[in-house]
Design goal:
Helix content of chain B: over 70%
Number of domains of chain B: 2
Shape of chain B: flat
Strand content of chain B: under 5%
Oligomer: heterodimer
Number of strands of chain A: 2
Largest sheet of chain B: none
Largest interface: A-B, 61 and 66 residues
Order of helices and strands of chain B: HHHHHH
Number of helices of chain A: 22
Number of strands of chain B: 0
Structural class of chain A: mainly alpha
Number of helices of chain B: 6
Distance between the termini of chain A: 66 Å
Structural class of chain B: mainly alpha
Shape of chain A: globular
Radius of gyration of chain A: 22 Å
Largest sheet of chain A: 2 strands, antiparallel
Radius of gyration of chain B: 25 Å
Order of helices and strands of chain A: HHHHHHHHEEHHHHHHHHHHHHHH
Distance between the termini of chain B: 58 Å
């Protein structure tokens, strides 16, 4: 049977020594990176990408997934020990993990978070395996009309979920779509907007845009405030005591909370644009509403830690659902994963699961494997976590900037890519200061060629453009796109009204 | 500083920052709108195709057209916000940059690093960059300076060795030697 063949082949590739070692390094890198305040998971994954160029496709993606899953747990460390979320996905973790740590139970707070992350990642991997194949079966039947409408929907959802102004969000999505048109056009190969510049002939290199937007501009805003540069005062002192098995039972004794938070994480992760940074807050809020003792939330109770950490870890599997089934990344991180596959020459879309079944099964297995590795690594190395969070930003920022330079140079070894990186980083920094959200730009860049190809294919098949509105699925998606904008405008207007009164 | 100025200054600063942001948006988006109009016109020269109704230029023109509209909308929105803010408060662009001097200094050092790299090579340029930025960010003396030197040496030379020997990704060796 081809399915078992693919599964066996993926097991063989995944359980090779090289892959296991690179995944383990990936897990460590992800945990450590996310533990350092100011170093986000996206940054870590973007910087891992160039390293995977020389690996076979599955090893490369498995390594990046390891960083991703590791990052989902790492943010917990500084959240619990310093009260500072290491990544935006760990904001709600500070609400209960930090008070618990201050009350003299830092070991319990960490272990709770680690186990909750593990189960969250596990549950999301199960949902991914169940949901992605049938969704891909449906997606293969979609025509170019539906596909174009789907991308339009994804773009409007991203723009409305991120940032304070939907106008700015949509502007950034469009800017991303435009940036993607530079270079050869996808159907005829005509050069566009290259202005005779050689570097632009093959298009603006996506990896450079990614690193510039998510790493360089982010790092620049990290060093803005001179007084906040000094970190390294650990706010929690004393020894860490662990009872990993007792804490595991403690987590498992909350099946309702664990399942609800994980499923919320999966669903939020699957929506384009939303991700861990939203999931942890919503999971926490829902756990509080469902609790019999909501007033105890925020005082350092186990339920709060479990909700936030399982919620943010579950977004990893959720985000992979639209990427594997539809070829549409659910978040910036998934866009990077998709870019990694594209660099390897794998075409990502609904046919991925049929054409490269071994790769997809390998990704599923890698999720489980990574979750287990994170658990093992965290439980063993918890004692040194305090030291990681003590590294000052004056060391982190320049070192990561050098890594950014390596990333930009890795693809073509062109010094012009480095200049481009600085340009993108500076523009990204100024855009962020003017309240422009940066995630829609990146999704726009990756979705641009898919949108254009499908639009043109649709009109080639039939010149009648009203088909976009008369084919039911396409029409439904367009209505959803309009609704997402309308609701966001309404919500923002209400917020403004409340702010004024 | 007495209590009165203490309590009065935060909202004042807030207003000037809002005003500065609105003004920056008006200028920035007006420039972008003009740029996209130019590109829109240029995209008209792109060839059409006999095989399909849309040529190479249609999709970019669609996007550019929408970009012009959105940028003009943001200009109008920001201009309205600008009129609502207090006319008296200064925009404070100078102070805005001064407050973020470390960020700009770091980015400037990154520029110099990129310009020097073809000549000095990745290893040496990285070493100097790492040291310079750590000094800029406060590692000026004693133990911290020692750590900075150590970090610069380890990562500058270490990353070069790691990528060229383990990952087989070639980095600029330098033109001077």
């Amino acid at each position: 049977m081809p399915m078992t063949d693919a599964l066996l082949s993926s097991v063989e590739q995944l359980f090779s020594l090289a892959t296991l070692v690179s995944m383990m390094i990936g897990v460590m890198a992800g945990v450590v990176a996310a533990a350092i305040p100011g170093f986000t998971i996206t940054m870590a994954i973007v910087l891992t990408l160039p390293v995977t160029f020389t690996m076979p496709p599955l090893q490369g993606v498995a390594t990046m997934l390891a960083v991703y899953v590791g990052g989902g747990s790492g943010g917990l460390i500084s959240a619990a020990l310093l009260g500072i979320p290491g990544t935006p996905s760990a904001v709600a973790t500070t609400f209960d993990a930090y008070p618990m740590a201050r009350k003299g139970e830092p070991g319990r707070a960490l272990a709770l978070g680690i186990w909750a992350s593990f189960f969250g990642a596990l549950i999301s991997a199960v949902v991914l395996i169940i949901a992605a194949p049938p969704l891909a079966m449906i997606a293969v039947k979609l025509g170019p009309w539906e596909y174009f409408s789907l991308i339009l929907f994804a773009v409007t959802v991203v723009a409305s979920l991120v940032g304070k102004s939907i106008l700015k969000g949509l502007m950034m999505s469009l800017l991303g779509l435009f940036v993607a048109t530079v270079g050869q056009d996808p159907m005829m190969g005509v050069p566009r907007f290259t202005f005779g510049v050689d570097v632009l002939a093959a298009g603006i290199p996506f990896l450079v845009v990614l690193i510039g937007i998510f790493a360089v501009s982010q790092l620049a805003s990290e060093v803005e405030n001179p007084t906040a540069l000094q970190r390294g005062e650990s706010l929690v002192s004393g020894k860490l005591h662990f009872r990993p098995l007792a804490v595991m039972r403690e987590v498992l004794s909350r099946p309702g909370n664990l399942l609800r938070s994980s499923m919320l994480g999966v669903v939020i992760g699957a929506v384009p644009g939303a991700g861990g940074s939203i999931a942890n807050l919503i999971a926490y809020d829902q756990a509080k509403r469902a609790s019999k003792t909501p007033e105890r939330f925020g005082t350092g109770i186990a339920d709060g830690v479990v909700a936030s950490e399982s919620g943010n870890s579950a977004t990893a599997g959720g985000g992979l659902i639209p990427m594997i089934a539809l070829g549409i990344p659910g978040s910036a991180v998934d866009a990077v994963l998709m870019a990694a596959l594209m660099v390897q020459g794998v075409s990502v879309g609904p046919r991925l699961i049929m054409d490269s079944a071994d790769l997809v099964y390998g990704m599923f297995l890698a999720m489980f494997l990574a979750a287990g590795m994170v658990l093992a690594f965290c439980l063993i190395s918890m004692r040194w976590f305090l030291r990681i969070t003590e590294i000052p930003k004056s060391i982190i920022v320049p070192v990561v900037l050098v890594c950014c330079a390596v990333g930009a140079l890795a693809l073509n070894n062109r010094i012009t890519d480095l200049y481009l990186l600085i340009g993108v980083g500076l523009v990204g920094y100024l855009l962020a200061k003017l309240d422009y959200p940066l995630a829609p730009l990146v999704l726009g860049v990756i979705l641009g060629p898919i949108a254009e190809t499908n639009l043109r294919r649709a009109l080639m098949a039939d010149e009648d453009w009203t088909l976009f509105f008369t084919r039911p699925i396409s029409a439904g998606l367009l209505i959803l796109a309009v609704l997402s904008v309308v609701f966001t405008v309404r919500r923002l207007l209400q917020q403004r009204k409340i702010a004024r009164t | 500083m007495n209590d009165a100025t203490d309590t009065a200054s935060p909202p004042g600063r807030e207003a000037s920052s809002e005003r500065g942001k609105a003004l920056a948006n008006v200028i920035f988006n007006a420039v972008l709108a003009a740029l996209f109009v130019g590109l829109f016109v240029q995209a008209g020269d792109l060839p059409s195709s006999m095989w399909e109704p849309l040529g190479a230029g249609s999709f970019p023109r669609l996007i550019l057209g929408a970009l012009v509209i959105f940028n003009l909308a943001i200009v109008v929105q920001s201009a309205m916000a600008l009129r609502q803010t207090d006319q008296e408060t200064s925009v404070g662009a100078g102070r805005w940059f001064a407050q973020r001097r470390l960020a700009f200094a770091t980015l400037a050092a990154f520029c110099v690093y990129a310009l020097l790299m073809p000549w000095l090579g990745f290893a040496l340029a990285s070493l100097l960059f790492l040291l310079a930025v750590q000094v800029i960010l406060g590692a000026r003396r004693g133990r911290r300076l020692l750590i900075a030197c150590l970090v610069a040496a380890v990562f500058g030379l270490g990353l070069y060795a790691l990528f060229s020997h383990v990952f087989l990704i070639s980095l600029p060796p330098g033109r001077l030697w």
